[in-house]
């Protein structure tokens, strides 16, 4: 399997070519300039003139890139509505590709902080990537406004530099538990999720409020994350367990395949499917088609939410991008709104200054309803129970009502 | 004979260059006429490279120096892959398992026991070598593509364990790893430049170990395994201990690479030992020129540079550019980066050989 | 025992359906390796291309004629890609360099597909008439999965007949066994082998399309399919038609019955089983009889 025996290759070639190669790549690096043996002035410049640099770290490649696209559009829409200004200041956006895993996401986002010296970063879909970045942001004193990643650990304990405009995995599940317990009236439920942190957190959150409200569990299963494509063995178990309902956490391709198979194997007819709202959000619902009809989920947004603020947002979004907005777009849209308020009131627009100003951010008038940060820097927001229905020939998540918390 | 390369497989023939090197090889190795040049030049080159590497923190900003550190750590992983793939002729996708073991061990030691860097490296290398001993004892009984697939299974299984083991943070990854210190009670290495020097130190020691192994009797036996396992069997030499020893050494070096990586990123997640990392590590060896150690190290640096640095300027196109790089390299660098110069010489030196 | 059968019979049938999909995808990989001695890591990308052809041609619903047209289109595109890959790999003999080349092609193809079809998960409808369900042992089972078993069986038998009973098949087998000899009697082996590469890629493309109503089409599916395909052919025996079939059946049952019985260890089953098979039978369960590899 080899090219050359080592001795020969090494003796012949340890000459100028590799040296030149090494030197060339070093020169490329050196073009970035600087020195790294003193305290770098991370966190952007605090001067009051010129644009404020904001980093946008979103997945532009890999399996999460459709989320990244939605988020970019949401963020951009807010800028468009405000003449490319936030808090009365011009904004310079520097974007980075989060990719799929921390392997690419951490270095790409670190670059925004240490190299591009942005004043704040918005984005991050993958929880592991966000966790891998937490220390960098805290040490550089630059705020990270998480616009998706839902790991519970990210905001406990809270840091002045970590903020979140999205959700925690636990909350989304927890919001639904009591309502489902009431609907089932003592009938047992089966819990199922992708076997990774988000799946466990979501199921834990649901289980807690569900059992507290008197619900019974028929069984649970965690399916290998990212490699499961066939749920028949699990669905077989659901049937045998005698469960009258199922609660699941799946997103993306897994959500599509799961919901389609749930319907194809005939469970949809007599076992009600519940889930965290990502199950039927955006592109996933398009791909599921009618197999998703009747699925009930909890989420902090639906594009069918009936409010004046949302109607105006949906209209603007559809006009700009020719597709309905998703929860991911709203999370990024709101991150821009948060920055708008923070920059407005900030005494200085470097990282530390913005972090301080973030503490003073009040209510956000969002398409999802009004919300504000809680003491852990997570959104204190309404959650809705939604059901997939066909409205005017289009499938959507109709809002059944707000969930009591 | 599942998967010897064509060069090793007389029936398949057809590779002109392969035949060429095979027949010319003995003469070349006995041709000492230009020996002095071959001794002086590499030493000068080595000195220059070391000097440049060591002086980087003086003029590179924190982000590029961090990138350079990641290149070094990944290069050390790739060197361990080359020890097996290029030197011993055992293509592997499993070194990420030991890379991950080293990284997680160093991280856990850092969080729970001591932030002393030397202790972390020792623990990481030890844990990785022990795992390599037990898994290798089974794996090295196979060869060729079967060995490749068995090591793929080892990598994936360790990946799955990391993904579900809560003590290492499961799928969320191991965070909150403190910065390393060099002496008990000393200052933690927080500034990017100092961290880089630490990573460079680990890299150089790892490289030195790999080089010494290459020059040792073990290294000779490893090349012997690659060039003709059957022949060694025929003269009554057992190849199993050689292959296992090589596997353990390579596992330990991959572990060291893991400790260097984690000292730098202070975070490690299952994604860091996924299939794509394993594949890129193996392909870096091919890209650089298998069996030369330094060629694959440069290959590794190029891969990280393209994926993490160049891709930042063309958002979302990192994978595309790596793809183009790989395809172009196959046709323009038939012997890898290490063979680039050699090939030109052989073309002109054909008559005198 | 009877109750165990009752509980798991449907799961085992489903395992056969999954095996049928896996066989379609993996058999091309195995053929190409067996005859061309090329480890084609772009195989997953070819398969995903087939799935996306379904997305492009079958929007929302599919009549049977439309579906058949899509299958033919996928076959044609696969054939062309296979031909190109055959030319590209013809001068690259070393397995690792082939890996570098074909994985490079796969990375490029993945990006191009995402550029054209976007990053969202797309689904492909089953053809009308097969999109319903039947009742097996009192439980509902999708008809499309059963028809996949039939289609796969037909393709497997056809491949077997072509390889074992025709002149072309004899040439392919002879080329595998002794290329120099075949060339000596005046047969242009490159053409034979290029044809095999094309057929192998066409099978991958068809497999991707036929699997699409079950697996969907999205970025990243190419890697999943490639890894599964590799496991299937290595477990079964590289380069052997029967091996691919046995490998697919084993992996199919692992992913269904295995998961049902040992759901705690579901993530470890696939690679654990592969390691076990390779360590006990390094050449796979049913290795190719001919050839030096």
Give a short overview.
The complex is a heterotrimer of chains A (405), B (353) and C (293). Chain A has 405 residues and is of the alpha/beta class.
What oligomeric state do the depicted chains represent?
A: heterotrimer
Mean of pLDDT of chain A = 88
**Proportion of helical residues of chain A:** 40-55%
What is the class of the largest domain in chain A in the CATH system?
A: Alpha Beta
CATH architecture descriptor name of the largest domain in chain A: 3-Layer(aba) Sandwich
Question: Would you list the SSEs of chain B in sequence order as H and E?
Answer: HHHHHHHHHHHHH
Classify the beta-strand content of chain A into a percent band: 15-25%
Structural class of chain A: alpha/beta
CATH topology of the largest domain in chain A: Rossmann fold
What is the number of E strands of chain A?
Answer: 16
Which sequence of SSEs, written as H and E, runs from N to C of chain A?
Answer: HHEHEEHEHEEHEHEHEHEHEHHHEEEEE
Name the shape of chain A in a single word.
globular
Rounded to the nearest angstrom, the radius of gyration of chain A is 24 Å
Work out the number of β strands of chain B: 0
What does this structure look like?
The complex is a heterotrimer of chains A (405), B (353) and C (293). Chain A has two domains: 52-167 and 309-373, Response regulator (Rossmann fold); 170-299 and 384-403, Response regulator (Rossmann fold, 3-Layer(aba) Sandwich), CATH 3.40.50. Chain A has a seven-stranded mixed β-sheet with strand order 8-7-9-10-11-15-16, sandwiched between helices. Chain A has a six-stranded mixed β-sheet with strand order 2-3-1-4-5-6. A three-stranded antiparallel β-sheet of chain A has the order 12-13-14, covered by helices on one side. Chain A has 405 residues and is α/β, with parallel strands linked by helices. In chain A, a hairpin with a 2-residue loop joins strand 15 (383-391) and strand 16 (394-403). Chain A has helices at 6-13, 16-30, 65-81, 102-114, 127-140, 169-184, 197-212, 232-241, 252-264, 283-288, 308-321, 327-345, 351-359, and strands spanning 52-58, 85-86, 89-97, 120-123, 144-146, 162-164, 188-194, 216-223, 245-249, 272-276, 296-299, 364-366, 369-373, 379-380, 383-391, 394-403. Chain B has 353 residues and is mostly helical. In chain B, 71% of the residues lie in helices and 0% in strands. Chain B has 13 helices and no strands. In chain B, helix 8 packs antiparallel against helix 9 (240-265). The two termini of chain B are 32 Å apart. Chain C has one domain. Chain C is built from eleven helices and two strands, in the order ααααββααααααα. A two-stranded antiparallel ribbon of chain C has the order 1-2. In chain C, a hairpin with a 2-residue loop joins strand 1 (133-136) and strand 2 (139-142). In chain C, helix 5 crosses helix 6, helix 6 (167-177) crosses helix 8 and helix 10 packs across helix 11 (266-280). The termini of chain C are far apart. At the A-B interface, helix 1, helix 2, strand 3, helix 4 and helix 5 of A face helix 1, helix 2, helix 3, helix 6 and helix 7 of B.
